[in-house]
Design brief:
The complex is a heterodimer of chains A (314) and B (318). Chain A is mostly helical. Chain A has two domains: 43 residues, no CATH class; 213 residues, MetI-like (MetI-like fold, Orthogonal Bundle), CATH 1.10.3720.10. Chain A contains 16 helices and no strands. In chain A, helix 5 crosses helix 9. The N terminus and C terminus of chain A are likely disordered. In chain B, a hairpin with a 3-residue loop joins strand 1 and strand 2. In chain B, helix 2 crosses helix 14, helix 3 packs across helix 14 and helix 4 packs across helix 13. Classes of the chains: A mainly alpha (314), B mainly alpha (318).
Chain lengths: 314, 318
């Protein structure tokens, strides 16, 4: 794939996709019985309802009091309207389990640093594998690809065992550094650089006297921005949603990310007697997923279009 | 906790890992190649420190026994014997196998159904539906399980109330008989859209000429989808089978959140990962926990080898 085609594809992807793409086949050609389209659309709508219902429920119930969550109809609003009160409660230590806002800050910190770190590391490694042929490159690359199949969560307990030995339990770096390791990122960046960074351009820069690092930063990196965004998003989503690793390595609630904090809250909310934890749990859940949903709707093409197509052309 | 693993599939299904091409040396190939090794070093170092070292250390731990008095001693396979003779461990293994046997095919079947009809263009507003279906990908398992716990809460939840209203009586979704189907429901909610997206992309990659030729031959839509397109996206389906199964074997987040709502329904070894967690972190028995983790990892390793072999036989891998 030439870089030029790549730019074109991005240009079309960012404009609104027409419902019937010019290359598509008209559904009339299938000679379907009348009403088939309507029927299939209704089935799709039913499944969409199944998917959307919990999210709508979360939105509605973040406006309720604790009692009303249980005694009023789940899919409709009830007085009093407590959304702002509930949001304010996120800043208080209602349960003794910890403060939600602290967890939000932690998640932003972990996801942010790990995301940026893994993007830089993956870009460098992808570039090294793609544009140099040093000794052992192939075998190392195969080793990396074989770790692609290792589930990250399978590493969490071994990490905990090592941390217990070297004193990294309850250290934020114990969370951030392993999250930077991204075999997927290496694979993706390598594929992307193979496709969109012409060797001749790099050689020309070298002839002009640019050093290797300069060639990478000034010439190669700007050409790989869509790939970088995809790796960044993937890591951020992975860290944001990670539950097992922080659960295992953190025992202090001031270090919890949102996932572990919410799970601690939910345990208190159901078993404890402390008042007003359910609204915090529900509103907290809403605030946890909103940033990702917004990010996803804004950058959908990177999430799937870009990410998936990137692999097709590899 | 499945996210990371499954996220990797975003880049996988359609194209198996491409081996580095042995290209003709480019102009300027006389220049030194060592900077390449420098570029990959930081990431390789992190990979070694945070993936390979812990794995080796877990194996070491699993072969030892730590006592308060006497310190750490080599204990051979004793920890493995203890885990393998634990009925709780096998209970969990059985449960995730049953869970996987139902959840994986159902998820992929629903995903393929929607991917195929969206791909054929016979559904109105398909773009909207594709966006909605994929949305749970952005929802952490913790929040998904929490929402569903409230929705299904006996007596109070909207869904049990709905079932009661239509005359099905008081359904307790958290009872020991229904807890596994309930978790299946939640996982289907979480992952169908993701599977659908992968399959949709694979289907879109099939040249339109193939479909046009079939239409000219008078093939029905269902024939085109099931007999023509389904075999063509087999690589993607095998990849998804593998990823979903690995995810099922590692089931942890959903049951551990449900445990908060219904402690009696989710036991110590409800799933193997819960067993590992409760043994190592809960009870502080690192050695036994490590042994259980290694057994689980071996199980997953065997599976990935199987998936690899199938793809290799199909000529998709090198």
């Amino acid at each position: 794939m030439s870089p030029r085609r790549n730019t074109e594809r991005r240009a079309t992807a960012s404009t609104r996709e027409p419902r019937r793409r010019p290359g598509g086949i008209s559904p009339r050609l299938y000679g379907l019985p009348r009403g088939t389209t309507t029927l299939l659309t209704l089935i799709s709508a039913a499944f969409a309802l199944f998917i959307l219902a919990p999210l709508v429920w979360l939105l509605i119930n973040s406006t309720k009091t604790q009692v009303n969550v249980y005694v009023t109809p789940g899919f409709w609003f009830a007085r009093p309207f407590r959304l702002f009160q509930n949001l304010a409660d996120l800043g208080r230590n209602v349960s003794g389990a910890g403060v939600y806002l602290r967890w939000l800050g932690n998640t932003l910190l972990y996801a942010g640093i790990a995301g940026i770190g893994s993007t830089i590391l993956s870009a460098m490694a992808g570039y090294g594998f793609s544009r140099y042929r040093f000794r052992g490159a192939n075998s190392i690359f195969y080793l990396v690809m074989s770790t692609l199949l290792v589930p990250v969560s399978a590493i969490s307990l071994p990490l905990f065992l090592v941390y217990a030995k070297v004193g990294l339990v309850n250290s934020i770096w114990g969370m951030i550094l392993p999250s930077m390791v991204s075999p997927v990122g290496i694979y993706l960046m390598r594929t992307y650089i193979d496709a969109s960074v012409p060797r001749d351009l790099l050689d020309a820069a070298r002839l002009d006297g640019a050093g290797e690092l300069r060639v990478f930063v000034r010439i190669a990196l700007p050409l790989t921005v869509p790939g970088l965004v995809t790796v960044l998003l993937l890591t951020v989503v992975t860290v944001w949603n990670n539950y097992f690793l922080p659960l295992v390595i953190f025992s202090r609630n001031s270090l919890y990310p949102l996932t572990v904090g919410l799970s601690a809250l939910s345990q208190g909310a159901e078993t404890g007697t402390k008042a007003n934890m359910v609204p915090v749990l529900i509103t907290g859940g809403l605030v946890t997923i909103l940033p990702l949903i917004v990010l996803f709707l804004l950058l959908e093409r990177y999430f799937r279009g870009g990410a998936l197509q990137g692999s097709m052309t590899g | 906790m499945k996210t990371a693993q499954r996220a990797s599939a975003l880049h996988e299904p359609a194209s198996p890992v491409v081996p580095p091409r042995r290209t003709r040396p480019a102009r300027g190939s006389r220049r030194s190649q060592w900077p390449g090794a420098v570029f990959i070093t930081p990431h390789m170092l992190a990979l070694a420190l945070f993936m390979i070292v812990p794995t080796v250390y877990a194996v070491y731990d699993s072969l030892h026994r730590t006592r308060l008095i006497g310190g750490t001693t080599y204990s051979g396979l004793a920890n493995y014997r203890t885990v393998l003779s634990s009925s709780q461990f096998w209970d969990g293994v059985q449960r995730v196998l049953l869970f996987g046997v139902i959840q994986v095919p159902v998820t992929i079947a629903i995903a393929f159904f929607f991917a195929a009809i969206f791909d054929a263009g016979v559904v109105k507003f398909d773009r909207f539906f594709r966006t909605v279906f994929f949305m749970p990908f952005a929802v952490p398992g913790v929040v998904a399980a929490m929402m569903w716990s409230f929705l299904l809460l006996p007596h109070f939840g909207p869904y049990p109330q709905l079932l009661k209203a239509v005359g099905l009586g008081d359904v307790d979704f958290f009872s020991s008989g229904l807890i596994t189907p309930t978790i299946i429901l939640i996982v289907i909610w979480e992952w169908t859209g993701y599977n659908m997206t992968i399959l949709y992309t694979s289907l879109k990659a099939i040249p339109r000429e193939v479909t046009e030729a079939a239409i000219t031959d008078g093939a029905r839509l269902s024939t085109i989808i099931l007999r023509l397109k389904l075999p063509m996206v087999r690589p993607a389906i095998i990849m998804l089978l593998f990823l979903n199964t690995v995810g099922a074997l590692q089931l942890f987040t959903e049951p551990s959140i449900l445990a908060a709502f219904q402690p009696q329904a989710v036991s110590f070894g409800f799933t193997p990962t819960l067993f590992v967690y409760n043994t190592a972190v809960g009870s502080g028995d690192y050695n036994l926990g490590a042994a259980a983790a290694v057994i689980l990892a071996l199980l997953i390793g065997v599976l990935s080898l199987a998936a690899f072999a199938v793809r290799r036989r199909n000529g998709e891998f090198r």
